[in-house]
Specification:
With about 325 residues, this protein is of the alpha+beta class. Helices cover about 20% and strands about 35% of the residues.
């Protein structure tokens, strides 16, 4: 009798496990958003935009001068400035561009690169990356942009030049229309750093810079740090400084990036922002909140949104 029961229970147990797996897979499918592939490659939404520069491996190739780009006529100069010693000889730098005037690939109508000053910069390679896919690449060996000695401080590519590159199509980037469902903490930090590096260039009447260890130490660890607080909150710490005659005062900015859901739309907002210097009331937290939120928010067609931060700081949209 025991053997009979044992033989009957084994297939029943296996079937029960199979049913659980089947139910779980149906739940997973139900929670996975569907994304429609646009017919026209240029109509693909831009969820993440990066510009990658490689500085040439020749003498004096690097520069400390400000550099900015423009991708269409509505876009004001976007400064490429991370809290590191970037654009050094034989180095590759990846910059996140958090730009409200580039919502679709078709909004990339040009690539204008401008360097301000007389410290020449030799570029060996340029890339444009959208949603994790490289859609434009140009190897230049060593192209100097410089305002000295009759040189040109600009390098421009037209819409036709960008689109004739060979990578600007679905054949090379078949899934470019599908946004990542998880963003790592490293990538979130890069997005914030790319945004802030440009934003501080437009603070009126103050020369705001990333913190440094020169003179009075105004940087502690990395210029931008993020720490997991709870499933809804990632805490950010920015180390900046204000250029003044004499020691530069430290400008420390802290804020929480908070995730929530509303009718299938994932919302991110900046809360609990704190600035440690009174004279910098010009630092518009509301503007930073608006632009970052517009860049990171997602509308996913899922019945139950469960967006959250994982304990490693990554953001999961499901």
């Amino acid at each position: 009798m025991k053997n009979v029961l044992r033989h009957c229970l084994v297939p029943f147990k296996a079937m029960f496990i199979w049913l659980l797996v089947l139910m779980a897979s149906h739940c997973l499918i139900a929670q996975t958003p569907k994304f429609t592939k646009p017919t026209n490659f240029d109509d693909v939404p831009v969820y993440r935009l990066q510009i990658i520069f490689t500085t040439a491996n020749v003498s004096d190739a690097g520069t400390d001068d400000p550099v900015y780009i423009q991708l269409n006529s509505d876009m004001r100069p976007y400064y490429l400035d991370y809290g590191i010693d970037d654009r050094e000889r034989n180095r590759k730098n990846e910059y996140d561009i958090v730009e409200p005037n580039v919502r679709f690939i078709k909004d990339i109508k040009q690539l204008n690169i401008t360097k301000v000053g007389n410290d020449g910069w030799a570029i060996s390679k340029i890339e444009i990356r959208v949603n994790g896919f490289t859609i434009f690449t140009k190897t230049l060996n060593k192209h100097w942009i410089d305002g000295n000695g009759g040189g040109q401080p600009v390098l421009n590519f037209t819409a036709a030049q960008l689109r004739s590159n060979g990578k600007w199509n679905y054949n090379v980037a078949p899934n470019i229309y599908i946004p990542p469902l998880t963003i790592s903490k490293k990538d979130l930090v890069s997005m914030v750093e790319g945004f802030v590096g440009n934003y501080i260039r437009y603070i009126p009447d103050e020369d705001v810079q990333w913190g440094s260890k020169g003179g009075v130490n105004t940087i502690w660890g990395d210029a931008v740090e993020a720490k997991y607080r709870n499933p809804r909150t990632l805490a950010f710490d920015l180390d900046l400084q204000v250029a003044k005659f004499g020691p530069n005062p430290e400008l420390d900015i802290d804020f929480d990036l908070v995730v929530s859901c509303n009718n299938g739309k994932v919302l991110l907002n900046i809360e609990n922002a704190k600035v440690n210097v009174n004279f910098l009331s010009k630092f518009k937290v509301a503007k930073m909140n608006l632009d970052l939120s517009n860049y990171l928010n997602r509308s996913f067609n899922v019945p139950n949104c469960n967006a959250h931060f994982n304990s490693n700081g990554s953001l999961s949209f499901l």
